[in-house]
Amino acid sequence: MIGARPPLRARRLLVACLFLAAIMVGSFLPNTPASNLMVLFILATAICLIGYGATVSGYRRPEKWPMFTALAIGVVTVFAVNTGGHSLWLTAFGESLRCKVISVDSHSSSRGSTQWSNELDCGGRTLTYWPSLGHTVEDVGREVDVVVDKARFVRELEPGKVSLGFNLLFLLALLMNGAFVFLVAWLPVRKAVPAAEE
Predict the structure, then answer these.
(1) Rounded to 5 degrees, what are φ and ψ at 132?
(2) Which of 108, 107, 152, 101 is CA-nearest to residue 129?
(3) Mean pLDDT, to the nearest integer, of 176-194?
(4) Between these two residues, 192 and 119, which has the higher pLDDT value?
(5) Does the predicted TM-score (pTM) go above 0.90?
(6) N or C, where is the chain less crowded by C-beta within 10 Å?
């Protein structure tokens, strides 16, 4: 049985939007040089994700769908903002450079895994290039194209990872969450049908 729309609780909606903003910031920060704090970002984002789900779920008691939907949308948001936000930032503040590989470096972790990076010379500017997913380090002497941040706030990316398609992922995350919060606040709450009426 469909009941009335839930009363407008602006404070609860504001808290949900603040949790959402924190999720988006926490999803974007691993693209910055502070990515050595990755565990902290993941933990904070997970806590905000749970807070987001609990906040929207509490808005529509006794329904359970908002909690699970918020968690699913939140996870999609993490990936969309991480990828799309990085591309969008470099579209706005990046420049494409042709660089020469001057070294290949290995980095061993305490868990035994090894990551590889290149040291690049980009017309007098030296930078450490960590290949993104699907790309590998290049041999010494080869030339590579990278998109670098003029402000040096985010890490560089390959030109193929900075495109309109990736930028639209960020917009998709915003629209998806905006529509979800609107539906949580606007849709009528379903009331349980008493056993005598069935």
Answers:
(1) -80, 175
(2) 101
(3) 81
(4) 119
(5) no
(6) C
Segments forming the whole domain that contains residue 31 = 10-91+162-193
R_g over Cα of the chain: 22
Residue 68 lies in a domain: yes
Sign of CA dihedral 131, 133, 139, 141: negative
> Is the pLDDT confidence value at 146 over 90?
yes
Q: 63 and 108, same structural domain?
A: no
Could you tell me where the beta strands, DSSP code E, fall in the chain? 94-108, 114-122, 125-129, 143-149
* 60 close to 6: Cβ distance less than 8 angstroms: yes
Same domain, 81 and 167: yes
- Mean pLDDT over 57-61 rounds to 80
Question: Which has the closest alpha carbon to 154: 97, 46, 82?
Answer: 82
**Does residue 3 form part of some domain?**
no
Helix 38-59 / helix 10-28 crossing angle, nearest 10 deg: 160
pLDDT band at 118; cut points 50, 70, 90:
confident
Whose CA is closest to 90, among 179, 170, 8, 185?
170
Encoded tokens for 107: 């980095």
CA distance 170 to 73: 13
Using alpha carbons, select from 44, 48, 21 the residue that is nearest to residue 34: 44
Q: Are residues 103 and 87 in the same domain?
A: no
Count of residues making up the chain? 198
